[in-house]
Amino acid sequence: MRRFPLPSAGTLLAPMLALSLVALLSAAIRADDAPVAISASAETFAFTPDKIVAHARVPLTIELTLTAGVHGIASDELGIPTTLIRPHRPVMVSFTPKTTGDVVVHCAFVCGIGHDGMAFTVHVEP
Q1: Vertex 52 angle, CA 59 and 75, to 5°
Q2: How far apart, in whole angstroms, are the C-alpha atoms of residue 108 and residue 57?
Q3: Which CATH number characterizes residue 96's domain?
């Protein structure tokens, strides 16, 4: 009967530790990159909330709802295409802020006499 030498504990332990470390780091990266979801609403000449805090390079999804009228949003700075918001049809808008600072997002659909003041701010932190 031929005998094969058994591997030492160190020989088995090193690859197991390396695989565990890779798995932990992968899970941490996925957790940090998970999109953040926020609910917001468009009302008569106002968005609620009027200020949203985001983080640079972290995906953000805003679910916009509306009960009456038609509104819209768009922002070249944030990469939000022109998106209409209609009553009782929630709209999901996803983007990833690239730089820090404040970005004012105005209503992109002429909605009436208070349209010019209808906006919300996305404050992007590092």
Answers
A1: 65
A2: 25
A3: 2.60.40.420
